[in-house]
Amino acid sequence: MRKFKFWRLSVGWQILIGLIVGVILGVIFSDNQAFIKLASNVGSTFISLISMVVLPIVISSLIVGIANMGDLHKLGRIGVKTLIYFEILSTIAFIVGIVIANVTDFGSMVDLSKLTKADISTYVKTAEHTHSSIVDVLMSIVPSNIFDALGSGHMLPVVFFSALFGLGLASIGEQGKVVIDFLNAVAATMFKITGWVMHVAPFGVAGLIGQTVAQLGLETLKPLSLFIVMAYITMIFFIFVVLGVTSRLFGFKITEQIAVVKEEIILSFTTASSEVTLPKLIEKSEKLGVSPSISSFVIPTGYTFNLDGSAIYQGLASIFIAQAYGIHLNFSQQLTLLLVLMMTSKGMAGTPGASFVVLLASVGTVGIPTAGIALIAGIDRIVDMARTVVNVIGNVTATLVMAKSENEFDQATHDAYVASVKAKN
């Protein structure tokens, strides 16, 4: 009889086992500082390993994709179309969050006296020193020093430089072929390394979720369980209704997208980081029939501009806090809040703790106490897990939609890959 090996399980099952083990360890070692530190270190190491390969993959894939596209007008058209799509979906996400918070009115059921305020001083400092103007965001796209942009991990300047470099390669013709071949090899190497790194994903997931459970404790979740439930239900609604309808309009099925990226969904949920899924999303998008030039442009850009889960959270949290304080916001005030959130969310994108920073920069404009944000800070990690999943699925949908609209999509490749995934399940 052949001996069973753990590594024969699919990555998705391994990560799921890591999640369960992490929860159990978190419960056993609740509030144990030594365990929390160890688990945090294990989780942080895994995140660092993934972050290590993200930028090389984005740079090499995007430069090659743009070089093969070789058309400045086409790149401009795709860029404008992509940003318009992102803005429409993000606005819908904000509206969905605000409307559901109003309909459920869960905030009015919360007893403020039973809630413990978490320390949000770090977010306050970030909000004070972060520019929220859309002009500032646009100005930050052009890097004065590409190496500084790479070192800081800012995605938009890297995307801008890579797009220009790709166009430059295309313009010099045969001379650029050696560079394109080199970058193709770099991308292939980075994807190979990503596969190796994924072998330690179960341990990283166990560490991250174990740390969260050990720090929070299950008891602290009870007072704000209404907000957690509301957030999860809203995000599930957005995935299957809003993204589902969007997918159907372009001839796709949201259930097939979820089946294809289920491992990335589990990984993003357990780590609460969408960045860890970026390499695999680019790879799988191409297997779904999307051209490399589209996938390597839309997905990295979406990680800044297409954060639907974060938009839902900000809409929900703003109204929830107002309800908890007994503040009634009329239609004009909520419309003002929506417009402010839309602007500040673009300015804060890519900032650590961006969703909290956006709330701090926005809620005060309609009279909601910024101190109220501290009330939900303790459960942010739990909600962050769900909103990260929405961000990931939203970017998969966006990539397919953009590819289909630009005739950069191969239906036969898509159908064959989906069929192979279904056969494995």
UniProtKB/TrEMBL annotation:
This protein's record includes keyword Transmembrane helix: yes
Database matches in PANTHER family: PROTON/GLUTAMATE-ASPARTATE SYMPORTER (PTHR42865), PROTON_GLUTAMATE-ASPARTATE SYMPORTER (PTHR42865:SF7)
Localization in the cell: Cell membrane
Entry keywords, A to Z: Cell membrane, Membrane, Symport, Transmembrane, Transmembrane helix, Transport
Gene Ontology CC: one annotated term: plasma membrane
Major localization listed first in the record, in broad terms: membrane
GO annotation terms (biological process): dicarboxylic acid transport
Superkingdom assignment: Bacteria
SUPFAM superfamilies the record matches: Proton glutamate symport protein
A GO term for molecular function: symporter activity
InterPro entries membership: Na-dicarboxylate_symporter, Na-dicarboxylate_symporter_CS, Na:dicarbo_symporter_sf
Mode of membrane association: Multi-pass membrane protein
Parts of the chain that traverse the membrane: 12-29, 49-70, 82-103, 154-172, 193-218, 224-245, 311-331, 351-377
Protein name: Proton/sodium-glutamate symport protein
